[in-house]
Design a protein that fits this description.
The complex is a heterodimer of chains A (436) and B (325). Chain A is of the alpha+beta class and 436 residues long. Chain A folds into 2 domains: 87 residues, OB fold (Dihydrolipoamide Acetyltransferase, E2P) (Beta Barrel); 230 residues, Chloramphenicol Acetyltransferase (2-Layer Sandwich). In chain A, strands 11-20-19-18-14-17 form a 6-stranded mixed sheet. Chain A has a 4-stranded antiparallel sheet with strand order 1-8-6-3, with no helix packed on it. In chain A, a hairpin with a 2-residue loop joins strand 19 and strand 20. Chain A is elongated, with a radius of gyration of 24 Å. Chain B has 325 residues and is α/β, with parallel strands linked by helices. Chain B contains 12 helices and 14 strands. In chain B, strand 13, helix 10 and strand 14 form a beta-alpha-beta unit. In chain B, helix 1 runs parallel beside helix 7 and helix 3 packs parallel to helix 4. The N and C termini of chain B lie far apart (41 Å). Classes of the chains: A alpha+beta (436), B alpha/beta (325). The interface between A and B is medium-sized, with 17 and 12 residues.
Chain lengths: 436, 325
């Protein structure tokens, strides 16, 4: 059986991809699910798996080469099968780009540099907001391909097939996909909160030292960041509203949880939960400018900006308003970890309706962020720091945190932005309410 | 239990039935003086004499015609085809007479005959002597088609076939004649139309009959090393088919691979695949796959013969496909 290895559209904005490397050589036997190649999209490096067994007979686009989405990049077939007809139809492959410029040998070994860990908004955004995530099993016509068994299992377990990524041939959802979907910890109900520690969403990523004085080729991710954020900043009229939040109660609660329950919750987890809840009360902030209309989204999907070695990405906590602080905490930790390994699936970084970016871990007091289009607002969160505060007309030592909302004035007006922030602040200042 | 070859088991079945019922007799090429081209009728001429063990000319239509006529008047003939490759010369007798008369006479005329002999490939006997014709006979309403894979099944099924009032096409296999297996010492029968699980497993159902059972079991051994537990279901009787056992197995494993030595095109495996997709639709996690002979006449060269036939490796490959591995 001849199986054409075609460059899949691995993210909604992907138009072309670069073959980072081939994991199989021509002549290697491949099984379904074997990693054939690593592909750099504009978002992440993704592994492309074999959809049919056989032998990797031909590599049409070598490592380093680029190909447009849908292009034939290789052929898997039985060892003796005649593949000349398939090859005859293949367009000439583009030549590999020049290898990346090597750092001069005098450069210091890579050291962790806290240069740009979590950063402004993210360029990762599905063109259609609040739509179901686009799993690989959904071809262009919107039909979900699933084996009959997978279909009936999903029905019994009340699992929406559109949420499941298919790993069978052509992205078919098969039994194992339903099983692994159902087994994901974020979907398991009633988990004991005693164990999962909640790490900070964006810890420092070690960056390789870049030698000065060179022209760096643009990665696909860098190009997308440049395009999407310029588009946002130059078309959405941004305005900024900053509030100062008394985090005293949150600090106390966090310590209590850590000491009493051995549960680690980050300030950012609390911010996320507070935003999610506030967004349900302010649908106009959870909205999009659509040219001739404004769309308010039925769901609250929070983007969380995560710094990764050559850019940033915003994994999405779906239905954050329906999740507990602990669920959010666990999910962010998992997503951020896999984002750094470039292992996110497209549906995990698409479709957010509001984004939170936090540079608190760098002791940044405040900053402004660029809206992640087509969202209407983004929240930039600074560090919680001890500062002099006035309590009952006396000076005292308190914990303060500054948050700045960037809002698209086409959708959100100043008073609305202020009211929204007021609600987020109210929730953070009585953080117990976030747990009920 | 005795350890017998399939040849000996078949011989026992005929001997016991001939001792029990004087209406049972054998006719065919070389069945008497030569003791059978494959020695299945060994010793029967000596015990039962030439009235009951009849050597015939090389004339398959005549053998079948005599058998059909004898069956119509109440005898129970066992017509040996030296191989089923040449049974096609007798197709008119089988299809238009043996299979039809009970129906056309409103049940007044029965045709309790057995036509038996080897079918399928042996070893380098090439295009005209290697054909698996079960798909031809299962197509005909009015026939029963049996294909045993073990000595025990062969004996128990042949005894049931001889006692059955319908024409039974009983297809043996040249390669299996020497295969040994345990056969009960006591009298036993295996009812026609009853499948058997030859190996239990939970990951995939492999349906196979006759020599393909051997292929399927070898594949299951290979798969077991990889942690895949294959269930091998042997229908034993292809018509009527014990589909319930197959459905039960697929319901458990969610995957089905059919192995057959006949050609793929309109082969019997397609009948099984059709029934499984219809009756087990919601249980299937993958399409039903078939491992068959190549769609060409059997080549003579040994290497090509191997490439032509289903092999354990090909079954393993198909199982990997339905398991998406």
């Amino acid at each position: 059986m001849i199986s054409r290895v075609v460059l899949a559209k691995l993210s909604p904005t992907m138009e072309e991809g670069t073959i980072v490397k081939w994991s199989k050589k021509e002549g290697d036997a491949v099984k379904v699910g074997d990693v054939l190649a690593e592909i750099e999209t504009d978002k992440a490096n993704m592994e492309m798996e074999a959809l049919a067994p056989g032998v990797l007979r031909k590599i049409l686009v070598p490592a380093g080469g680029k190909a447009p989405v849908g292009a034939l990049i290789g052929v898997v077939a039985d060892a003796q099968e005649d593949i000349s007809a398939v090859l005859a139809k293949a367009p000439a492959a583009s030549a590999p780009v020049a290898p990346p410029v090597a750092a001069p040998s005098v450069a210091a070994p890579p050291t962790p540099t806290p240069a740009a860990a979590a950063a402004p908004p993210a360029p990762t955004r599905a063109p259609v907001l609040a739509a179901a995530p686009a799993p690989r099993a959904t071809p262009g016509d919107g039909r979900v391909k699933a084996s009959p068994l997978a279909r009936s299992m999903a029905e019994r377990q009340n699992i929406p097939l559109t949420d499941v990524a298919g790993t069978g041939p052509g992205g078919r959802i098969v039994k194992r996909d339903i099983e692994s979907y159902a087994a994901e910890p974020s979907r398991a109900r009633g988990l004991s909160p005693a164990h999962p520690p909640a790490g900070a969403p964006a810890s420092v990523v070690p960056f390789p030292t870049i030698a000065p004085g060179q022209d760096l080729p643009l990665s696909n991710m860098r190009k997308t960041i440049a395009r999407r954020l310029a588009e946002s900043k130059f078309s959405a009229p941004h305005f900024y509203v900053t509030v100062d939040v008394d985090m005293g109660a949150a600090v106390a609660l966090r310590e209590q949880l850590l000491k009493g329950e051995n549960v680690k919750v980050s300030f950012n987890d609390l911010v996320l939960k507070a935003c999610a809840r506030a967004l349900t009360r302010f649908p106009m902030v959870n909205a999009s400018w659509g040219g001739d209309k404004i769309t308010t989204h039925a769901e609250v999907h929070l983007g969380v900006a995560v710094s990764i070695p050559d850019g940033l990405i915003t994994p999405v906590v779906r239905h954050a308003d329906r999740k507990s602080v602990l669920d959010i905490s666990r999910e962010v930790k998992d997503l951020a970890g896999r984002a750094r390994e470039k292992k996110l699936r497209p549906e995990e970084f698409m479709g957010s309706t509001f984004t939170v970016s936090n540079l608190g871990m760098f002791e940044v007091s405040e900053f402004t962020a660029i809206i992640n289009p087509p969202e209407a607002a983004i929240l930039a969160v600074g560090a919680v720091s001890k500062s002099p505060v006035v309590v009952e007309d006396r000076l005292a030592v308190g914990h303060r945190m500054k948050m700045t909302l960037s809002a698209d004035h086409r959708v959100v007006d100043g008073a609305l932005a202020a009211q929204f922030l007021q609600e987020v602040r109210r929730l953070l200042e009585s953080p117990v309410s976030l747990f009920v | 239990m005795a350890l017998l070859t399939m040849r000996e088991a078949l011989n026992q079945a005929m001997r016991e039935e001939m001792r029990r019922d004087p209406n049972v007799f054998i006719l065919g090429e070389e069945v008497g003086a030569y003791q059978g081209a494959y020695k299945v009728t060994q010793g029967l001429l000596a015990e039962f004499g030439e009235w009951r063990v009849r050597d015939t000319p090389i004339a398959e239509e005549a053998i079948a015609g005599v058998a059909v006529g004898a069956a119509f008047i109440g005898l129970r003939p066992i017509a040996e085809m030296m191989t089923f490759n040449f049974s096609i010369l007798a197709l008119d007798m089988i299809v238009n007479h043996a299979a039809k008369y009970r129906y056309m006479s409103g049940g007044q005329i029965r045709c309790p005959m057995v036509m038996r002999g080897p079918s399928g490939a042996a070893a380098q006997v090439a295009a005209q002597h290697s054909q698996a014709f079960e798909s031809w006979y299962v197509h005909i309403p009015g026939l029963v088609v049996v294909m045993p894979s073990t000595p025990k099944d062969a004996k128990g099924l042949l005894k049931s076939a001889i006692r059955d009032d319908n024409p039974v096409i009983f297809m043996e296999n040249e390669v299996l004649y020497n295969f040994k297996g345990e056969v009960p010492d006591e009298e036993y029968h295996i009812p026609l139309g009853l499948a058997d699980v030859k190996r239990t497993g939970k990951d995939v159902t492999i349906v196979a009959w006759s020599r393909s059972v051997t292929t399927a079991l070898a594949a299951a051994d290979i798969l077991a090393k990889d942690g895949i537990e294959a269930e091998v279901v042997d229908p034993r009787t292809l018509r009527p088919l014990d589909e319930d056992l197959i459905f039960e197995s697929v319901g458990k494993t969610n995957r089905c691979v059919v192995v057959e030595e006949g050609w793929r095109y309109a082969g019997f495996g397609a009948e099984i695949a059709d029934r499984v997709q219809r009756e087990c639709f919601d249980a299937l996690d993958a399409p039903v796959l078939r491992v068959t002979a190549a769609d060409v006449p059997m080549p003579y060269a040994k290497t090509l013969e191997k490439a032509y036939l289903p092999q354990p490796e090909k079954v393993v490959e198909a199982v990997h496909k339905v398991l998406y591995r």
